[in-house]
Each structure stands twice: as structure tokens, then as C-alpha cells.
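Batch queue: ligand-bound targets. Current item pairs a single chain with manganese (II) ion. No template structures supplied; prediction is de novo from sequence plus SMILES. Inputs echoed for audit trail.
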Amino acid sequence: MRMKKNNTFSEIRVALAEAENILILPHVKADGDAVGSASALTQILRKDGKNVYAWAAEEPLPSLAVLAHEAYVTEIPEGFTPDLLISVDCADIDRCIDRVQFFPDVKILNLDHHVTNTRFGDLVYVIGNLSSTGQLIYQLFDSLGYKINKKAARSILGAILLDTNRFYYSSTGTRTLEIAAEIIERGVNMAELCEELFGNNPKEKMRLLAMAIERAEYFAEGRGVFCYLPQEVQDQAGTDNTDDIVEALRDIQGVELALLLYDYKGTLRASMRSFGSLDVGKIALKFGGGGHRNAAGITFEKTNVDKVSRELLSTLEALFVRKN
Ligand SMILES: [Mn+2]
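Prediction returned. C-alpha cells below.
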């Protein structure tokens, strides 16, 4: 299969210029990068005189609301008919098909940074291994000559901070840090933004984290860790917010790979994190999911949890064997 190449700046410029009403689509269960990028893009394009909404599948998580602006909505105004759709941070069209389906004849511009991006859409601008879609949008729209105002810049910085885990991950490049610096120069207070993003964990969320650590089981001689959070446990904690749990598991001493399984709205989700060359992205692809080398996820129809976890664990265990 020949992969569709990225469209040129001038092709993207033309598509944007021709559009009047633009609908931006962050992926389902939008994370900070999706909310921040989509929100920033509404600002950038509105300043350019466009009629723009970011249409999300659900309300942003309370912890991410600081990145969402007024045009970030879960319902678009009646009669709003887009002439361009922009998918944001979606590796696959499945991640936004719930909304794309209403506009089957409208062009899609696919903006993303996942190496596994299927390059769907009529126009594509994807740079795999870039820190975040936030960074991609900053670079692209800066190059195209758009003004990125303070509000947009703040959301982009939030997207970068969240997708790099505060510049922790190897996807943090020199350009990532330059962009952060440019945004700070623009008057955005990064410490204040960090406090809002990272210093506001609800007690229920921390309780679920504690329960996850308690329930964790180790494999591959402590180099791997696994935890399953069934609905009952989430109910007991009082939240279904599993954010940051898989990262906390991975950050346990000696652990190089973490697998979190959890019930989510009638489905079973797997979230994986790893260090170095342990490629969980490939494993996710094999099971019908997606992501990056060190961060990936899969959604399963809720069937047999034991069977799914056994299959996943033995596949993950084989990663270690091959490495030794
Ligand atoms: Mn992202």
C-alpha cells in the first residue's frame, strides 16, 4: 500500500482559504493534546475570520477544562454546515467517525503526530514522533503565517506539557522546547498553567490510583507490571478517571513496561506504557489498537477479561524475551 504523502503548505493554505465554516474534531475521550490542540485551532482560525467550532464527543475532563475555549462544544449550533473538517490527534478515522458520519461529503484535513496514523482524509499533515499535535499545529500555522494569540498559545503549551508529561518523554525535541520558550515569551505563565493542569487532582482520582498500585501484579521479573480496574473498583473509588495511572505504574522502580486494563462504558480498554525500545505501539496494532512506541492503547468489545489479559500478557512477556 502506498502511503499518502503530506500535502504541501500551499495545498493546505488553499483548502483553508476556500473554507468558510470549519469543524474541528478532537478524538473520542479527548486527552489534553486533543482538547488543547482543537481549542487552539478554533482561536487561530477565528482570528482569521472563519466560522469555527471544535466539536467534541464529550465534555472535556474537568482537569482539562482550562485548555478549552468557548468554541469547544459538544453540540454544534443548528444549521452549522461545515465545508471543511479538521481531525486533530486522531491516528485513525475511527477516533472521530462518530461525528464525521454526519458530513460524508465534506473534505477532511488530518492533523496528527501518531506514527501509526493511517493517513486518512483528503488532506494530510502528519509528522510521526513529534511531541504532540499541539506542536504540529504551532509549527504548521506559524509557517503558514497565521497569528497565534496568547489564548491559543496557552492551550498549545498545555497540549505539549500533557503529551510529553512535562518534557519527560524522548519525543521532547529542541523545537518542542523552543516553542515552549516562544509561548512563554508571549506572556503565558507556565508555572501557573502547570499548577492548574497537575496540581488539582481530585481525591477520588488519587484513591483509584492508590487502589491500582495495591492491585498491581508484576511479571517478567518485575520489569513488567499489570493491573485491571473493573467497574466495581472504579465505583468504589468514586471515579472512572484512570488518567495518569498507567504512567504511575511504569514509574515504579525496575518497571520498564506497564499494562492497565479497565472497564470503560461497556468496553474493555488496555493502556500501555514502556521505556526505550520496548515497542507497545506494535503490540497495540496487532490487537487492533494504536499509539506510539512507548504509549499505546486498545479498545476491546467487552468479552472475556481473563482471556484478553492472558493473551496480552503473554505477548508483552515475549517482548522481554526477545530483548535478552
Ligand atoms: Mn497527542
